[in-house]
Each structure stands twice: as structure tokens, then as C-alpha cells.
Amino acid sequence: MARRKKVYEGKAKILYEGPEPGTLIQYFKDDSAPTAQEAAPAAVEGKGVLNNRLSEFFMAGLNSVGVPTHFIRRLNMREQMVRMAEIIPLEVVVRNFAAGELAERLGIPEGTPLPRPIVEYYLKDDRLKLPMVAEEHIVAFNWATQQDLDDIIALSLRVNDFLSGVMLGIGIRLADFRLEIGRVWDGDFMRLIVADEITPDSCRLWDMRPVVDRGDGLPLAEPGPLPDVYTELARRLGVLPSNVTHPMKPTLIN
Which residue ranges form the domains of the chain, and what is each CATH number? Predict the structure, then answer.
């Protein structure tokens, strides 16, 4: 399709003006989103193609079960049409297991199941390295209202239920993931939707490998890194393009 005016370029995606009012074209790059310790993203050949397919799968699935997202349709190997939304300046992180930064911060062993899903908020400001913020900060600085936060929690937990079930069905444990939430208006009515993407760039995924080490002879599923996460996840979900067969290095959230 003809290239349109660029609206925004991030670490892993570019947004262009859409062909219809209120729409955008989201282009998936091969660059990986860097962690706080990395200075610049590294290119991973073919990652954008797989992330386009994977985000389409998850967003369309959420739409089908009544969880609103910005996804409209995939256009080609790297582009999809999405609904324009006002992005709330927060990264919403949902945690099911202690891992990464949470395990380090609280001294909890990696892989410990949490008593219930925990929702955390991080201010979207790369200059400040995405600091964690409390609901009081969010409301006080008018990044979102208390009603917004109540709706964000409800939306995030519904996404968690859907993603956890899908992953479990293909032998993967969803340790945690991050979301971006946007505001859209239907006339005078405002509602919140899931925006951005849902891909391995925004999820921590563990392979559920059966081992026998409990002493009772019964298999126990222990978490382990998912090898070649982009390719393997697309293969298990049945969305792997026929022209992508090489392995890719996993990129997981902190």
C-alpha cells in the first residue's frame, strides 16, 4: 500500500495516518525494544512479521470475547489498521508469578506463584526509566481518574484471564505482561480499550517442561525459558508464516 504520513515512531513500531478517519496504520519493525540497561534496540530479522501476526491473533481474540481493543484488521505482512486512541501515559503490568524486577525488589524466589494477579503501573517516560507509580500519583497528576483506574484493572484482569488460558493450552506459562490502554470516544461517550500490541516483546513466557523431581514419580511442570520465543509461539498458535523458519532470540520484559 502507498506510504502515508508518519505520525509516530517508537522502538518497535511506526504509526502512519490511516486510510479512514479515526484510523492509523501500525507498522511492525524488526527492532527489539531495549531494556533499561540497553542503549539502543537491536534488529532481529523477521521479528516484525511475526509480531504483526501474533498481535493480530491476540487482539482479534480479545475483540471476539468482548474485550475492546484498537485492532481493526491486518493489512499485510507488517502492517495492520488500528483505531486511533488517546494513550494513557502508563504501562500497566499484570503479574501472575514472581519474576524479574518484582522478584529482585521483594526478595521473592523467581517463579513463585502470586496469591492473586497483581496490577502495577509505570509512568511512560523513558528519560526517567519508566518509574513505578501508585494510584495516588496517577490521580493527583491527572494522568487518569479513579474511575479510569477501576476500569483499567477490570480490563487488565480480563486480558489476563484470556491470555493465561490461551498460553496454558499450548504449554506456556504467562508469568507477566504489560499493556497500554487508550481512550476512544463514541459521540460523547468515552471508553477504554487495549492499545499498542500484545507480543513476546510485552510478555514474559515460560515453557512448561515436565520433569520428575518431587520424589513421588509424578511429573511436575517447571518453568523454563521458551526457546526462540517469536517463532515458537507463532508455531504453537498456528500463525507462523510459511516463509519464516529461522529461530529468533527472545526479548522479555524486566
Answer: 6-83 (3.30.200.20), 86-207 (3.30.470.20)
